[in-house]
Fold each of these.
Amino acid sequence: MKRLQVLMLLLFIVSPSLFAQTKMIGNETDAQKKQRLEWWTDARFGMFIHFGLYSGAARHEWVKHNEALTDAEYQKYFDEFNPDQFDPTKWAKEAKAAGMKYAVLTTKHHEGFCLFDSKYTDYKATNTKAKRDLVREYVNAFRAQGLKVGFYYSLLDWHHPDYTMDDAHPLTQKDTSKANYARLNKGRDMAKYRQYMINQVTELLTNYGKIDVIWLDWSWGKEDQKKSTGKGAKDWGSVELIKLIRKLQPGIIVNNRLDLADYKDGADFETPEQVSTKQLAPYRGRTWETCQTFSGSWGYYRDENTWKTHRQLLDLLITSVSNGGNLILNVGPTGRGEFDYRATNALDSLAYWMHANSNAIYNCTYAPDSFKVPEGTKLTYNKAAGHLYVHLYDYPKDGKLVLPGYNGKIKYAQFLNDHSELLYKASGSDDVELTLPANKPHYEIPVVELTLE
């Protein structure tokens, strides 16, 4: 997924009409789409889970690409795959406690290894020491906790013998010449690979009950496709693929990486990846989910130490909602199938904050323009409940918070965490001055709930 950061930003810049097209694949109305996505837009917070053979390598989910490994060199990770601590019920409980409402698991990543029992390949978990369909256990566990269930499925496949070369394939990393591409492509048939994808997507969307989200990954930009170093809609057969997906699971929500930007209904949401919080503002008014990691990689990376702080994670969540989007936060389980202690600590800290402040996240979006953002804060808004939430990034040292232009707009103020009243008074003709206690509540970013007139 690392290559998508720049690509998705470029797509956003050069294709401002990405979701404004009139061409349609199906016949769903805007009202029907809004209803289909309602649970997802209300949820706001989900868990991504990247788990595969690369979890044993423990040095990035792209290790096969990064080190230009052949299938033979990569085989040891298949042979040694033994997630003896795999317990998706524990995963689901941690996700639920952290306030996440849905999850998306990598059923197959770029390496081509399948966590599910596909009849179209031997390269799957049931043929390893695991000897189990890990996807089925994930589905059952997360459903049991009341969470929505999603599947990630890689369009790329670095193991399949018919998958043709591109600039991400491990076998093209040392020799990028056209001659090498031609040599490696000899005998490969992308049409056979497309059928393989269709067969596996059919399995995933038929054998596991209702699936709420499918996350397909990924397509190159148009220039790379023209140079034959990247793949897009024609390579994947994207139009037929999304028709199949909608037929098998009519209520499913689909991300935007099938290269179907020419169609109004070619995707349900945009996917800004690993962007900063400042880069989320332009997405306001669109339907989107930012995918983010705890650290610098998606798969388990034992020696990677750039883990986000609790404050940074809260900022991602709050800023996503304050711009009308979702956050899906990734965990990369270890080779034994359990969450790393650093991930567990991060989830625990989120759970503490969400237990007290989740009302400022669920069913919320950006505030109306009529409400100015007080200095040192960010706003989220629940229209149906009539509540405006003020997230106190900088707790006032003097205990005074000025709400600019709020005079006559609010009828009650309280801390969200304990529902303790906060007194306020008019300040000048338009402002309101809120009095806060000297002792900041024991939350990294406390939240004030304003009940609106």
Amino acid sequence: MDILREIHRSRMTRFQVMAVTVALVMILLDGFDVAAMAYAAPALSAEWGVEPVMLGYLLSASLFGMAAGSILLTPLADLIGRRWLAVGAMFVITLGMALSALAPDETWLLVCRLLTGLGVGGMMANLNVLVSEYASDARRGSIIGIYAAGYPIGATIGGVVAGPLIDALGWHSLFWAGALLSGLMFLVALALLPESLDFLIARRPAGALEKANRILVRMHREPLAALPEAPAAERSSSGIGEIFRGAVRTRTFMLWIGYACLVAAYYFANTWTPQIIAQASGDKALGIQTGTLANLGGIIGCFLFSGLALRFRSQRLLFGALAGAAGAYVLFGTVFSVVPVAMGTAVLLGVLTTAGIAGFYAVAPGVYTATARATGIGWMIGIGRLVSIAAPILVGYLVDGGWAPETIFHLFALPLLLAAACVAVLALSLRREAAARHTVPATPATASA
């Protein structure tokens, strides 16, 4: 694996930057497509008379699809490659957004949001892996932070255009815009997104040497006469087998539980805050503005994590973000009745929760080898989402049952504290392994941890 080690220790080339940039734009559109439902919810509810419980299901549909896509589709990236799964997933997203725009009723829209989420789920973890494998060791944590910013950037753009677009053309227009942009990005990815060198060398699909050499030439490196020998552990293990073997099993469960708790709190705030603020203030536009501010805070959080990752370990940053987010949820519930203050606090919520997501994206690749990396991260996101989809639905029942929004925000501080505890256990496990080896190899599997 000398060629991979040399690449990861070297400065990034323009080709590597291009690969990361394409992935960033793809995840940006994912943020737009998923957030579209939250921004369309007030107008859609008024037009169709959607009850809170059904609205909860509509808001959770894409999350359920994302969970299914992460679990069922992402492991394919360890078999067929990162590139083709990403391109195929973008096509599914385009189809789902177009069909959502044509939805005549709640049931149709529910199915279309499931389909859109399926594509997003198959793409998110896969692109996370591709970015981590094309990033250099020195910049991996920072680049993952920037990559993670793509999702809230897309959601924020959705918030900026949602108000004028819905006022002028109706809520359907927001989904048409997502379908058009996703379709264009499908063509861009088909033309520009490269395959992962780590995958080609670890899995050795047909034509792997030729494909690897074409990539190396574009990186201004000498072509290989033969593929380097893969470690025996990577040649003999399956992706699923690795994530449940030995000490990795405990780390896998800590990732699952921690990430699930974080995204449950994140998607509660992300999907319900616009509706809750709109109802509390009687102003639908104010609800959209508050959701936009939270996503703006998410962008700041990702870039803040990216900058801090140049100096501090990703595990420590992740723990701090989760603990801080728990406090921010309590604060938001406390000041909720003062809408201007609550809107400012929404920015802080976005900063800390999205920094936490960036932290999990940066830490998770360090737990697995290239053979299981897509499977491991995909299942982390998928299992997490299976738990998190209950959050918007639960909140729908709580709101219908008369729970005050302040109390609901206080409630969701608890899973954030549990997530912080899981990260502490994960860090301890990795530290013990490092101490046993006396050194931590500088590979893409460990450098970002």
